Amino acid sequence: MKTIYFQQFPYRELPEDFGRTYEGVVTTPYHLVRPEAMRAAFDDAMDELMHAARAGFDGLAVTEHSQSSYDMSPNPDLYAAALAHATEQEGLETAIYPVGRSLGKTREPLRVAEEQALLDYLSGGRLVSGFPVGLAYDANVNYGVPPIETRARYEENLELILRAWTAREPFIWNGRYSRHREVNIWPRPLQDPHPPVWITATGNPRTMEYILKAGFGFNYFGWYGTRLTGPRIFSRFHEISDRLGVPANPHRVGLTLVIAVARTDAEAERLYGPHAEYFFQRGISAIPMHRLMVPGSIAPPGLRALLADPGDLGLYDQMSNASYRQLVESGAIIAGSPDTVAEQLLSILREFGVGNLHAMLQFGSLPRELTKANIDLFAAEVLPRLRGLWDDGASPHHWWPERLGGQRAPAPVTGSPLAGTGSLTGDFK
Fold first, then answer.
1. Rounded to whole angstroms, what are the CA distances from 8 to 86, 248, 260, 285?
2. In whole angstroms, what is the distance from residue 34 CA to residue 82 CA?
3. How far apart, in whole angstroms, are the C-alpha atoms of residue 84 and residue 122?
4. CA atoms of 164 and 181, how far apart (whole Å)
5. What's the rounded Cα separation, in Å, for the pair 313 and 306?
6. Other C-beta atoms within 10 Å of 91: how many?
7. pLDDT of the residue at 391
8. Per-residue pLDDT band at 424 (split at 50, 70, 90)
9. DSSP 244
10. What pLDDT digit, counting tens, does each position of 12-48 carry?
11. What DSSP state is assigned to residue 100?
12. Is the previous residue joined to 15 through a cis bond, with omega within 30 degrees of 0?
């Protein structure tokens, strides 16, 4: 069982009437910003990440979102580089995990390949690479990628990155979206053949099939009510895995959860309630639906799955106005005493077959000292109870750096979208 500390970089001083006055957190007017509060947000986040590394977390995960006030992280590789160097200097054996280097929007995939290869060297082979497609408002609005191209561009970019990482001789690349007379990046990654690759997805069955065929790890964000969405999402993943003949392995599954730990359940509500409501009401759920679901940005299989589960859209709306208690009841946040939190987490992880927990212990307007207290109590009284889960030797962890105890990943299954040398766009539009 791996437990990763998950960090966003939120602006923590949006006004109380933000949701009534402004469209959302991806179009936040900059006149709301106090520069000293902006700098404090970045300083605090880096301090919290290093605090988590010293507390014994297995990994540090940072994300990417452009032009947004709920996560001011345009390139997670910047923060990952600082963390890689600092943790290596202190001898902290923790994975460095840019969980969200979105490839659906990038027009420079080789730059991504080079940046992350450098990260692998800076960390001494501790890099875990997360490559989501990316959100529509980011790829299609901010970066001007036509919605119909997003997924095809993503898959071509990912294939190019993996080939650039593993090729030992220069090669020509003639893709649909990028063409290179010679690809010969320096450096290649330290890990052989390359760092573990994870994809964060929302439940699109085509994406799940892609992940399983290619041999990647699957990560899901449980922000919209784990108890409500989890059974369907993870059942779908395991059904596709069975159909493809891919052995079940909890270590290839990750789940991101908002977690708040206090001495008692009542104290958790008092300490964390306002900050949890801020996170949903002035953060992740304050993205207008018309910016999340740009027409043409969802492939037909994903659209069919979404229409088959229309309650998802209602859940999103509910979370944008939910109270702390409603968030706890739905499983959008796991909160309470160490016993309450540990029992709920173990139940969720066992039920869904999850071997990698991404613990989001800073959320919304939560200040530095309270975040560090949350980290400390989780690390001291919850983390030890999770350690032994799935560590019976029956399921090797192929999606973790070998330096940190992972095992080299198996070859992709027959029919993998990454088996050839051409573009992926023909099979996975």
1. 19, 30, 15, 15
2. 25
3. 6
4. 13
5. 9
6. 6
7. 86
8. very low
9. H
10. 999 999 988 999 999 999 999 999 999 999 999 999 9
11. T
12. no
Helices 226-244, 338-352: crossing angle, 10 deg rounding: 30
Looking at the whole model, is its pTM more than 0.85? yes
Q: What is the CA radius of gyration of the chain?
A: 20
Place of tokens 């659906």: 104
- H or E element at residue 181: strand 179-183
Rounded-to-5 percentages of helix, strand, coil across the chain:
45, 15, 40
pLDDT for position 421? 41
- Strand, helix or coil at 76? helix
CA distance 33 to 13: 8
Domains identified in the chain and CATH numbers:
2-404 (3.20.20.30)
Give per-residue pLDDT as tens, 320-373: 788 999 999 989 999 999 999 999 999 999 999 999 999 999 999 999 999 999
Please give the structure tokens belonging to residue 363.
Answer: 């959320």
Instruction: Give the residue among 274, 272, 209, 221 at the shortest CA–CA distance from 245.
Output: 209
Structure tokens at 300: 């037909």
Query: Bigger pLDDT: 415 or 336?
Result: 336
DSSP, residue by residue, 294-356: -TT-S-HHHHHHHHH-THHHHHHHHHTT--HHHHHHHTSEEEESHHHHHHHHHHHHHHHT--E
- CA distances (Å), origin 276, targets 42, 189, 284, 326: 19, 38, 11, 11
Size of the chain in residues: 429
- pLDDT at 167 > cutoff 80: yes
Residues 6 or more apart in contact with residue 226 via CB below 8 angstroms: 255, 257, 330, 331, 332, 334, 348
pLDDT tens track for 254-270:
999 999 999 999 999 99
Kindly report the average pLDDT of the chain as a whole number.
Answer: 90
